[in-house]
Design a protein that fits this description.
The complex is a heterodimer.
Chain A (H helix, E strand, L loop, with lengths): L25 E4 L4 E7 L11 H7 L9 E4 L2 E7 L2 E6 L3 H5 L1 H16 L3 E5 L4 E7 L3 H6 L16 E6 L2 E7 L6 E7 H15 L4
Antiparallel strand pairs in A: 1-7, 2-5, 2-6, 3-4, 4-5, 7-10, 8-9, 9-10
Helix pairs in contact in A: 1-3
Chain B lengths: L2 E4 L3 E4 L4 E5 L13 H9 L7 E7 L7 E7 L5 E5 L8 H5 L10
Antiparallel strand pairs in B: 1-2, 3-4, 4-5, 5-6
The chains are: A alpha+beta, B alpha+beta.
Chain lengths: ~200, ~100
Amino acid sequence: MTVDLRGLRRSPLGGPLVTGSVQAVRLHELPWRTLIELRIATAPDGSGAQTGAVESALGLELPSAGLASSDGDRLAVWLGPGWWLLDEPESGAAAAGGMEAFEAPIVQLLRAAGGPTSAVDVSAGFAVLELAGPRAAAVLAHGCSIDLHPRVFGPVRAARTMVAKAQVVLAQTGGVVPTYRIWVRSSFARYLAEWLLDAMTEYR
Amino acid sequence: MLRIPCPWCGPRDETEFAYGSQAHIAYPVDPSTVDDAAWAAYLFFRDNPRGWFAERWMHRAGCQRWFNVIRHTVTYEIAASYPPGAAGPGADALSAAEAPIGHRA
């Protein structure tokens, strides 16, 4: 018998939504995303990762340095040479179907890759935040030293960096208004959300 | 604060990096045949130049890769960064060059 434990779990921010709900910029949590860290062996200089087989198994392009790629609600983010973060919506069937159903896509990925590859489910280790609005870049810039000007860090740009001294993965997912997705360690999620809400207070 | 150019991620703040001491120190080919003095020199003795210095950095908060940087120890100017295994411009070649203008040692 498989027990569905979904009703018992808590997201790192304790609920589906933390929001600033102001005109200029909004913050909310995207709970229960499926996150997989994928590593494919490279040469010491970071080149030569064989991505073709994995890309066709995923049906998603593995982006090159400093970029993210998306297919609907699925996202692949470049973290480093031969290192990507895959962000997908929760699969209801997998969540209800126990460990085997949960692991199936990872096993399929590894089989497809063939060579030295690792795929690790890190969903429980991260909180996913979304910061959206015309002033989103200004809010982030309060605590992030990379250049967030739209000309430099526009849609589909991504970086693994620091925001407010917390280590994060940051991606500009685009859309009509600038939208940033932030992956942060669960243990830093409350801190970062509080920090962002504080930074947002001046943009009303 | 240094701005260090990661070969893969581009220029980032020094706080994102971890320092890894002098670069291009080769592991002894056969450590068991190395005498104590040579082993101590390999383990502990590092150059401390006043000028260009090849050193290792790791992009801890970014791609988590080690790489090499040529940095001037007086002016903190960074002349190059390159992946491990690649031939850099070489601290020796640079030390023949003048220090940046306005910062003559």
